[in-house]
Amino acid sequence: MASAAGEEGTVRFGIIGCAMIARKLSRAIGLAPNAAVVAVGSRSLEKSRRFLSDNGLDAAPSPPTVATRRSSQTRAWTPSTFPSPPASTCAGGGAAASGKHLLLEKPAALCAADLDEILAACDAAGVQFMDSTMWMHHPRTAAMRELLSDPVRFGKLRTVNSIFTFVAGPSFLENDIRVKPELDGLGALGDVGWYCIRGILWAVDYELPESVVALRRPVTNAAGVILSCGASLVWKDGQTATFHCSFLANMTIELTAVGSAGTLHAGDFVIPAEERSAAFSFSSCAEFSDLHTSWGPLPSRHVVSSGLPQEAQMVAEFSRLVGGIRGAGGKPEKKWPDITRKTQLVVDAVKASIERGFEPVVVGS
Amino acid sequence: MASAAGEEGTVRFGIIGCAMIARKLSRAIGLAPNAAVVAVGSRSLEKSRRFLSDNGLDAAPSPPTVATRRSSQTRAWTPSTFPSPPASTCAGGGAAASGKHLLLEKPAALCAADLDEILAACDAAGVQFMDSTMWMHHPRTAAMRELLSDPVRFGKLRTVNSIFTFVAGPSFLENDIRVKPELDGLGALGDVGWYCIRGILWAVDYELPESVVALRRPVTNAAGVILSCGASLVWKDGQTATFHCSFLANMTIELTAVGSAGTLHAGDFVIPAEERSAAFSFSSCAEFSDLHTSWGPLPSRHVVSSGLPQEAQMVAEFSRLVGGIRGAGGKPEKKWPDITRKTQLVVDAVKASIERGFEPVVVGS
C-alpha cells in the first residue's frame, strides 16, 4: 500500500470509525490498486492510534474532523469512509460539503429525509457518493445480472425471496450499535435487512415497489430496536418479493429470483462463503419428465472468481469514479446515490408498516 | 406386478380417474412390493380400457363406481386412489363408507368442511386415509427431519420459505382441471401451493399457524381461479413462514428452514430432480470469519438414495398400514388424515385472506 500511495492517481481515504468493518475496509483499501488510507479518525486519538497499529497502517491518527479537512498532500479530495453509526452520519453531509467524496457504511441513514441531506450536500459539492454494499461490486453480481437480463433464459421477473440472518451473540445483543436506538435504531432491518432489500431491488433492476407490507411477528429488544422482521413487496406490474432478516437465526444468506423462464439462486449473495470465488445456480425452461417423476434441465452451477475481494473491488470502483471526477472534471456517477435512496425508501416503508400495525405502506419517491 | 398380485398380503388398488397422475400412481403401485392395480375407473369405459392398455395393466376397466364395490377376490378392502378433481372426491366419502381405504390426490377437498365429510366416513368405516403427497415418503424427508429435530445442530425453528412454481403451457391454462372453477377451483393454491403449505407445516412439525395473511397481487384467470399467489404465516411462539406458488413461473421447488442454530435447504423437495436419489444442504452454527470476509462452516450436501421412487414408497407405506388393519384388526394411522386436514385448513385460510382483501385470517381448527 505504501508504494501505491505514492503513485499518480491514487485516491487517498480517511476512515472515520474504528469498528470491525473499518478493519475490513482498511484492508480493502490496501488491496485496491488505486487507493490508500491516509488518516483514521474515531472518538478518541488513542483508539485511532491502536487501529493504525493493529492494521499496520502508516497514516495519521486524527479526531473525527479529519473527514472535513482537505488533504494537503494531493490535489484530490480525500474520500471518506464512514463505518460509523448512521445516527452520526450527519458528519457525512459535513464531509461532503467540504468536498470529500463519500463511501458510507449501510444503513446510509436512519430515514430518507436524513439521507437526502447528505445526498444534497454531495450534489452541491459535486462529489461522488456510494454506500458500502460490497456485493454489488463482485464480478458474480455482473454475471448474475447478465442472466437476469436475458429475455429468453430468464424472461420476466415474477418473484424474489431473500433471507439474511445470523446469530448475534450475547455481547452483540447487549452492546453493539445495531441494537441501540440512539445509535442505529434500524437494528436488523438496517443491517441484514438492508442487504435483503438491496438484493430484491437489484433483481427488479431498481424499480421501486408500489407498496410494502411488513410481516407479523417482528422481534424487538427492550428498547424497541428490531432484531428480526420481514416484509412483502409488490410492484405495479405484478412482481412480488418477500424477505426475512434477523440477528436471531443461523447464518443464512439467500437470494432466489424466479422469472417466467428462469430461476437464479445464490446461497451467499452478500458475503461469498469463500473470498476469491463465488457461485450461484441458474435453471432455465425446466420441465417435468414424463409422469412427473423428475424434472430438468437441472440448475447449472456457475462459479465466478474474483481477483480482488468484493470490498476491494468496491474501493477500486469508487476510486476510479473519484479519479474520473478530479482528473477530467467529470461528474459523479448518479447510479450509486440513486440506489442508496431507493433502498432507504423501502427500509423506511417496512419500518412504517411495522409501526402502523402491518398496514400496506406506499413506497415514497 | 402380475406375480406380486397373487402373493399373500398384496393390497389391491382401484384407481379412479385416468389423468397423467394416475399413470404415475399406477406405475408406483406396480413398483411397490405389496400392491397391485385390480381395477381402473373413469368417466368412460373406453377411457379406462385405453388407460389399461397404455399402462400394460392386467385389470378390469370399470365405471367410477368400482371404488365403492368391495373386492370379490380377496377379503381385503380394495383401497382406492383418487387422482380425480377434488370437486368429485365426494366419491371418496362414498368409497370409504363402503369400506375402501382411501389414497386421495391433493388437494384433498375444496374446503375443510368437504374434507371432514370424507374423513368422517373413513373414521366410521375404520379405513385408512392418506393424501397423495409423495415427497412425505422419500427417505430424504426422514433424513431432513432428523436434522430439524436436532436441538444442537438446528435448534428452534425461526422461519421457513417455500416456493413451488412451474410454467403451465397454453393447453393447461385453457383446459386443465386445475384452472376450472367447477372442477378444481383452488387452482395453483390447491396444486403447487398445497406442497408449499405442507412443506411449511412439516418444518414446524405440524403445529397449525395462528394466522395467515395472503400476499398482495395474486393472479387469477378470467374465471377467478388462482394462477399465482402467496402468503405469510405466523405461529404463537413467533415462528414465521412465507410461500409463493404459481403456474406462471419457471420450475422452482424450494424449501428453506432456518433455525436458531441451523439452516436446511432443499432445491427440489416435492419432486426430486432425479428419481433414485435426492439431495439437500444443511449448515449449522455458521459464523463469519475474522473481518467478515467469508463464513463457515459451509453448508454440507447430503444425498439420500431411494430404492423405490417416492410415489412407490408412498404406496408401499399405505399398503403396509392397510395390511396392518385388515390382518390384525389394527387401527388406521391418524397422522395422515390429521396432516391432510391441517394442510386444508391453511389452504382455506389463504383463500379466505385473498377474498377478504388480504386481511389476516385466523386458522381454523
Overview of this structure, please?
- The structure is a homodimer of 365-residue chains.
- Chain A has 365 residues and is α/β, with parallel strands linked by helices.
- The first copy, chain A, folds into 2 domains: 2-133 and 310-333, NAD(P)-binding Rossmann-like Domain (Rossmann fold, 3-Layer(aba) Sandwich); 136-306 and 344-362, Dihydrodipicolinate Reductase, domain 2.
- Chain A has 12 helices and 18 strands.
- The first copy, chain A, has helices at 2-6, 20-31, 45-54, 90-97, 112-125, 139-148, 170-175, 181-184, 187-190, 192-203, 310-328, 335-355; strands at 11-16, 35-41, 60-62, 80-82, 102-104, 129-131, 157-167, 211-214, 219-220, 226-234, 240-246, 248-259, 262-266, 277-284, 287-288, 295-296, 300-305, 361-362.
- In chain A, the strands form 3 sheets. In chain A, strands 7, 8, 9, 10, 11, 12, 13, 14, 17 and 18 form a 10-stranded mixed sheet that branches.
- In chain A, helix 5 links the parallel strand 5 and strand 6.
- In chain A, helix 2 packs across helix 11 (310-328).
- The longest helix of chain A is centred in the C-terminal third of the chain and has 21 residues, at 335-355.
- The first copy, chain A, is globular and about 70 Å long.
- The first copy, chain A, starts with a helix and ends with a strand.
- Residues 1-6 and 65-78 of chain A have low confidence and may be disordered.
Number of domains of chain A: 2
Biggest chain pair contact, residues each?
A-B, 71 and 71 residues
**How much beta of chain A, percentage-wise?**
25-35%
Q: Given this structure, which CATH class of the largest domain in chain A is correct?
A: Alpha Beta
The CATH topology of the largest domain in chain A: Dihydrodipicolinate Reductase, domain 2
Main beta sheet of chain A: 10 strands, mixed
Shape of chain A: globular
Q: Compute the separation of the termini of chain A in Å.
A: 41 Å
The strand count of chain A comes to 18
Mean pLDDT score of chain A, rounded? 89
Order of helices and strands of chain A: HEHEHEEHEHEHEHHHHEEEEEEEEEEHHE
What is the annotated CATH architecture of the largest domain in chain A? 2-Layer Sandwich
Structural class of chain A: alpha/beta
Q: What is the subunit organization of this protein?
A: homodimer
Number of helices of chain A: 12
Low confidence ranges of chain A: 1-6, 65-78
What is the CATH superfamily classification of the largest domain in chain A?
A: Dihydrodipicolinate Reductase, domain 2
What's the Cα radius of gyration of chain A? 21 Å
